[in-house]
Every structure is written in C-alpha cells, then in structure tokens.
Sequence to fold (240 residues):
Amino acid sequence: MDRPSPLISVQREDFDTRTVIHGLTDGRVDIGALVTFTGLCRDEAGRLAALELEHYPGMAEAELTRIGTEAIERFSLLGLAILHRFGRMEPGDQIVLVVATAPHRQAAFDGANFVMDYLKTSAPFWKKEHGSDGSTGDWVAARDADDEARLRWNPR
Amino acid sequence: MTRFVYFAWVRERIGKAEEELEIPASVETVGDLLAHLKTLGDEYEAALEYPDAIRVAINQEHAERHEKIAGAREIGLFPPMTGG
Fold:
C-alpha cells in the first residue's frame, strides 16, 4: 500500500484543529484512532508576556517533512499533519499541532509522540522571550531532557 | 560564493541575517568552516565562542562536523533548536 505524505504547514496564522482533523478523516472508514497534540505558549507564572518564534524558511518545512515521513513509515500511520507557527505568540496561543491517524491507538500515540520528540531537537525553530516587565529577554535554551526524550526512539 | 544564513542569537551576534562568502579551498569540512569563520572578525568570534553550541545545515539539511562542504549552495548556522 502506498504510504501517505505528511501534511506540513509552517505559518504565521493560528490554526483550527477541527479543520485539520476533518482533512485527515473525512470520507475515510479505516481510521480507528486519531491523536492530537497541541503545544501552547505558557506565561511562566506571569513572567512571560510573549514568545517570538523564529524559523529557517525552507529548512523548517523540509525538516518537518523528513520527520513526518519517518513517523508514517515507522508507525504505519494512515495520516499525519504537522503545523508549526512562527512570529509573536502570547500566553494561551497555540504554537504547534500534530495530528496522527492509524488503525489502532498505540501507533497514533507513538507517531505523535515521536514527531514531537524529533521536532523539538531538529526542526529549525527558536524561541525568544519577552518579559511581562517590558524587557526583551533571552533566547530559550535547549533542554537536555529533550535530547534524552529523542534518544528513547533509538535513532537510526 | 556560498550563501550563508544565520538565525537566533547567532544572527544577532554576527549582526546580519545572511551574506555571501567565498570559502577558501583549504576549508573542507564543517569543522574547518567553523574555525575559518571565527577568524573573520570580532562578531564571528563572539557568535562562535562556544563552537559545540552551533548547529550547521548544508543546503537545508543538518550536517555533522566531519561532513564535507564541497557543493554547498547554502550554509545555515544556528543555536540548538527550541521549537514545539
């Protein structure tokens, strides 16, 4: 059976999760499980006013496509969508969406999880913090925990 | 000439988002390239102060230190990624 291609979007605008879900499920009767992950901008206990998301145009799409293609292959997903925003985001705003579909739940959960672990460490996006006190803060530092999360998938 | 693109604090420290640079023939690998760029001025020195923290992409794909840069049309330099 032909593998589906991942649906990839790197965009400034907000996204509507239901629309993305419908795009993956409408007219299909073979999907038994659909998992969504949404990443949101949080306020860090009031310290953060906004995040500025910078990306590498072209490579961001290419890298998400590589990650998505690998996830579809590895977990035999029926469909996969990865949407990532850039620009200024305020607490409560949506940043990233992953939707994975499969015949059974484990593949859908694992597929979405795998995509996020790889996205965190290899998709070219960077966050800069803006403080609620008006300060322009620092670039967010990469976390060792994200590298470790990726390693559990035993990268090939 | 090769197109260089910089992101996040690498871009801020170098002071530009992109430029065209001539790479000397003696610079063969990604590791060589980082050492070479450091010699181009104070801003490059500051950006590459901690070379282990720099990620490099060749033609929009991640590249390890030992990889050859021959044939690169576009080279990206940036810090570890923090998306998601």
Notes: Residues 7-151 of chain A form a domain with the Aldehyde Oxidoreductase; domain 3 fold (CATH 3.90.1170.40). The two ends of chain A are 23 Å apart (CA to CA).
